[in-house]
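= Tokenised fold =
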Amino acid sequence: MEKKIGYSVIKNLCSPYDDEMNASFNIIFEKYRYLVYYVSFDIIKSEEEAKDIVNETFLRMYENRRNFMNESKLKYFLLVTAKNLAINRYYQEKRNLPYSDDMVGKDDQAGVSVYLEKFKDILDEEEYHYLVLHLLYDFSFREIAESNRLTTSQVSSKYQRGIKKLRDYYGGSVL
């Protein structure tokens, strides 16, 4: 079983003592750097870009360190930040590509997370958000609920409503 990061580690991110703060940051970085990297790489398919996103994600975590009360909220922040940075970078790179006839008609190979962007037109923001967290990043409904100050049944209900909308839209052939 994966070892949890204790409250004292998260609390020490805000410590006035540099050695405590750095030690806490390093513990969190060591635990989550590969997960953040893989989330980023899955979207943009570039090792260097994914490494940049890891650095930027942990910088943003540091800047927002006072907002974390528990590990699930921290993990949620890291994954959502990495995903959003990667998607933004992906679309930024896509806009900078020169037009080419051999690109027309080809499927988008950027990964499941970019494919899920198509669901945004069908689902409301919460449904989409919970679907991505649960299916793509393996968050439990309990973890999602804790991070959003909701009950597990509220998250589950929104998730199930989203799945139903997608099934209705795609004729019952999704998920």
Helices lie at 7-11, 18-44, 47-63, 71-96, 112-115, 125-136, 141-148, 152-169. The two ends are 28 Å apart (CA to CA). Residues 163 and 175 are 7 Å apart (CA to CA).
